[in-house]
Amino acid sequence: EKNAYAQILSALKNQKTEIHFKNFKDYKKLSSIYKTLLDDNPDIFWVKTAASGCKYNGKKVFDTYMRFTYSMSKDKMKSTQKQLQKKANALLKGLPKSSEYAKVKYIYEQVVDNVSYDYVTTSKKENQLITSAMLKGKSVCAGYTKMYTYLLQKAGISCMMLSGKADKQSHAWDIV
Q: What is the pTM of this model?
């Protein structure tokens, strides 16, 4: 699973459209690995679709693969990454040097002071991304959590992004 994770991450960073896994036959598990990878890397925002599959030779799997499409070119992706880094640096400029709690609270305040909840376009995929929160200042819970995770990671603070149900609706949050 660690090798598959690393292979998927490399493919996404290089915008490969297809990858094959030599020694990983459980293609259904790839979806879970992919979701974990996105939770660990909130700054991956350029993937449009990801699908996994396999080829059988009788009853035996002989090829497991993933295919990706992207929402932007590699140049646009790199340009947007630079914008995210610039914004993160500006938001973290006043990061306290005292306790970890003070840092966590400061970053939390930066997120809630700089992002408003988008009640209008909540069904759009773009509001599920870090770019909606950090660059547009308007997002839903997924954008908030990705921004918070990203800034915490930049500050060297361990955290974990989670998703699940709250009041029977999909929701995302962070554990710090």
A: 0.89
